[in-house]
Structures are given as C-alpha cells and as structure tokens.
Design a protein that fits this description.
about 20% strand; Macrophage Migration Inhibitory Factor; alpha+beta; single chain
Length: about 100
C-alpha cells in the first residue's frame, strides 16, 4: 500500500484545500505506482512545531513509502510533483520541503 505522509508547521488549511491536497497526492501515487487508488493512503499533519535549517519559517517533511524500487530519475520526477502540490496547497516553498 503506497503512503504519502506530509508533516508541516504550516497552519491547518481550510477543509477543502487540505482534502484537495490529499486527493491530488492519492491520484499521483496511484498513477506512479500503478495501483488502484483504493489502496493508496495519504496523511497530512499540519501545525507542528518544526524547524529546517535553524529556522521555523514554513517547512514540510514528506515521506513516500511503497514496496519496490524507484530509479533516481523517477524519484526526482515524483519529488518535484509532490513538492509542487504541497507548495500550492500549504504555501511552503519547495526549497523548504
């Protein structure tokens, strides 16, 4: 079962925006890993106390778990897509994800 877990110090987004982020991440992982979306799990933990680079400016930590392997170029493409979605939904710069 693929899992995408987003931890962030950004505030909790409005319900539609948070749900939209999880939906987009779910579709992205289902397509990337060739799994039915019913087997994909997403999680968002906003409002955490976090720092990155010694700063508490908006930041996020994203983990993706799945059985199998990915080539470096596939990892880069997936990472860029996830960072773009998180940046758009939460206002966290891609450089801080």
């Amino acid at each position: 079962m693929p899992l995408c877990h987003v931890l962030t110090n950004a505030p909790t987004p409005a319900a539609p925006a948070g749900r939209a982020l999880l939906d987009e991440l779910s579709r992205l992982l289902a397509a990337r890993f060739g799994k039915p979306e019913r087997w994909v799990m997403t999680a968002l933990q906003p409002g955490l106390t976090m720092t990155f680079g010694g700063s508490d400016a908006p930041t996020a930590f994203v983990t993706v778990k799945n059985i199998g392997t990915m080539k470096p170029d596939e990892t880069l493409v997936l990472s860029e897509a996830i960072c773009g979605l998180v940046e758009k939904a939460l206002g966290v710069s891609s450089e801080r994800i």
